[in-house]
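Closing statement on the glycyl-adenosine-5'-phosphate sub-project.
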Amino acid sequence: MSVNMDKLVSLCKRRGFLFPSSEIYGGLNGFWDYGPLGVELKRNLKDAWWKDMISAHDDLDAPPGAPLAYQMVGLDCSIVMHPQVWKCSGHYDLFHDFMVDCRESKKRYRHDQVRGRWVEARGKRFFVATQVGGEEGLKETETRALKHLGLRAKQVEELVWDGALVSLTTVASFEEVLGPDATSLGTLTPPREFNLMFKTFVGALSGEEGAAFLRPETAQGIFVNFKNVVDSSRVKLPFGIGQVGKSFRNEITPRNFTFRSREFEQMEIEFFCHPSQSPEWYRYWRDRRYRWYTDLGLASSRLRLRDHDHDELSHYSCGTADIEYAFPFLPPGEFGELEGIAHRGDFDLRSHREGKLARINGELSVELDAEGKPRHKGSGKDIRYFDDQIKERFYPHVIEPSAGADRGTLAFLCEAFHEEEVEGETRTVLRLHPRLAPVKVAILPLVNKDGMPEMAARIYKEMKRDYSVYYDDGGAIGRRYRRQDEIGTPYCITVDGQSLTDGTVTWRDRDTLEQIRIRAEDALPELQKRLRI
Ligand code: GAP
């Protein structure tokens, strides 16, 4: 089913999943607030990740597919860290995108996100740029080429197109480029580097001395605490450290709802292992993380695991696979990244000790300045791992499954959104996995009299201690069911006339619409049973 993004975005606003940040002041591009239901949904996703990956992980037995049993622990690190962290991690020098500005429209674009196609007409050959992909992009470039040439729609035959949409990065000079929002040629500036880290100042020092950055990933907090964790928690290789928290990137063009935001949350694992075992662990984490998404309800037909080409690899990575989802706002056949699983080798631990590494003639070595000194000095602290079985001190290799909590939340919302005909009416339903649903069950007294509210309130109070439960006594019962369907509540319990005589209630299932009668005292165990999947 294709999801209408406008309808989903409007549902998110109307029912309190997501609001633009600072909306009463016109919003701030790239920043979002989660409303009362959104915060529950995203928290459920993060809790599911934390439980499945960290707290409920069995340290004693190897999970299916794992080469060995292993341990998992957690961390929660500060957002502002010592500025040297980002110099040694490579972010200070390398974490940038290229941007182009338009002198006419005053808009700014990410170089690699602008596409377009070449056209020839009336003796002119030029490149029509657009930010839109697929069929819509073709239509848009056609309309703008006609407008630029002062032609009418019926003169479309005069346009001779040279191939399909291609990236602006394939265009050497911008003199013949019609920018995405421009009417004249040659208004785009040459691409310029733009570092994505947000800069701030710590304490009263306002100059460069006090300069620091908001973290662009949670990963580095884990690396710089590697030794602390080893020394304090008796973990032995192989083991993983997980962290969930905010990251910040000053994205040039935030877009597609929350997909590309400037403030977002990550759920990252750094998994440390002996270098000789890292290829096996890399394969294990690729598969395990893919399965996690399908287990929680993403359809495998819209999900794919894609290995990066060599030229796509980040500066630290010697192998990366992305888990990608066919978000409905992307052109057909295109996928957006949900999570990356990277084989980071020993890049980070070595850099934080020895100084920033760089790939020189294919080998990672400390990057030197003109005087032969490390360009960015490491901490000098020996943060290597000592294996007391084999009496060897070494840098472990790292496999990093790095997921976005906001992109995950958005993917599950897109997957869940359905509109269907039921009894001659359109029913909007979010088919969220019960573990993710913001409200687990709604308690509905059929009418507000005859002891029904009292019985419903007893069930509500019993369940509310452990679960997110909603009590609704307003309006016709059909309308109340629809309100719950629309926010993804998997179950509704109705207290009716029969409840007062035989102590049973109606249990309604969101997806099958099946209604069964169960005893009121069985309602809580029934919910517990269904949520343990
Ligand atoms: N430590 C590795 C790392 O940060 P990444 O691929 O840059 O890798 C990991 O980011 C995940 O974080 C992405 O797969 C995505 O889910 C999420 N993410 C990255 N940038 C984002 C943004 N601007 N908005 C929302 N989520 C983002």
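The chain has three domains: 38-73+217-247+255-412, 98-194, 439-530. With this model delivered, the sub-project is considered complete and its resources will be redirected to Aim 3.
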